[in-house]
Amino acid sequence: MKVSSRLHWFRSLFTVYTTTRIVRIKSKVLAITYVILFVTVWAAFLRSYQLDLRRIYQKTCAAQGISLIKVKGVISTESYSDEELNISYPELYRRVWDTEDIILHSGDGFFITTNVIITTNQTRGRCAQSNDNNCERNSDCPFGKQNNASNGIFDGVCAKGNDCQVSAWCPLENDQLPLNGKIALLKDTKSFTILIKNTVEFPECETEFCDCDRDEFIRRNILDNFTLSYLKNCRYNPRNHPYCPIFSIGDIVKWTGTNYDAIAITGGVFRIRITWNCDFDWGSTIKDCLPKYSFSRVDAADAGLSPGYNFRTSILHEEDRRTLTKRYGLKFLIETAGEGRKFDFLLLVLTIGASIGLFALAPLVCDFLFDFFCFLKTLGGPCAKWFESYTEEIRYQGINAHLSNPTIAQNGLEISEISPNKVYSSQEISNF
């Protein structure tokens, strides 16, 4: 008997489908609550995917890239007079400047010099420190010490003029900009151009989505249909030449909403972002993927203290002689961003399952409220009349208890006839 019962149960797994029935309860509170929760869940669901339904069934892989740059340009400052420059050794500032003088490369981008302070023929020795190191006696300049305002190490001597004497590279730097600091000496660098050679790949797509050649997921921003003549003459423009890899320095700064002549005096930091968003579905390949360029300013434009960007470099002529250059300018960071997308069946199944669970939130909350209202009614008191229409008979268990012992007929499952559009009373429900 037990074996026959177990066999019947096992066979019913493949021949009988069990479901639940819905009881329609006439309640404005529950109905409005359900609608609000349902709409909220839908809005949150669509917002989480940013209204891009491809995220439901497409798996992503991050873009990885490297950029090589080549900067071209030359300017001259030979036309400035001594009076205009208004600085010591003005002849050092009147000359021709090319990329070797102006451009400094780094791993994350490059730096273009727009203003300079040059201190020539510095030698190791002792000289008076003339800024914020006033002294009256030698004890005010402790030997071997220094402070944040000094350019060297105190040697224990209070020199003439009440300045501490330091051991340093002398003469000390005179922190005065040429042209009275009102105009950047190298402001014409805005005409310089930069060629960005960017290569992007999607290694995760290559390993997860297919067993194919590595070249099928590698792309350059110099497109296959470009010619040598086009590269020599094109300049990037978001409307006319959106894929040209050659940019004007002045245009990059302008597209960030910054005035080049103003920022060139003390410098700033900018970002060039190359975004690759590639869809590998519907027969698309890496050759259909195109770059998108964007530009932004990174540093604080309204900084009151220590604005801009600067640092010092030196050229060592011999063991004890050098030329020190304080460089103000624009730092450009080059970033590669984006992702590749391709259909993934497992992701689709998981997303659908998670979504079903999310949409079950509204019925769950309404069931809880119904049971809570029924409980409040049993407590009595002045608020009981607000919940008099809620009774314990109107429960889903009443229907489920009836369906827990279904009768199997030869032609299928025999069930009670319950109209889906009829609102049943608690007495009718209790009779099921």
Helical residues, percent: 25-40%
What value does the average pLDDT take? 81
Task: Report the biggest beta sheet as strand number plus sense, adding barrel if it closes.
Answer: 9 strands, mixed
Distance between the termini: 30 Å
> What overall geometry do the principal axes of the alpha carbons give?
elongated
The string of secondary-structure elements, in order, is: HHHEEEHEHEEEEEHEHEHHEEEEHHHEEH
Instruction: Name the quaternary structure.
Output: single chain
User: Stretches where pLDDT falls below 50 for ≥5 residues?
Assistant: 395-432
Care to count the β-strands? 17
Taken as a percent bin, the fraction of beta residues is 25-35%
State the helix count.
13
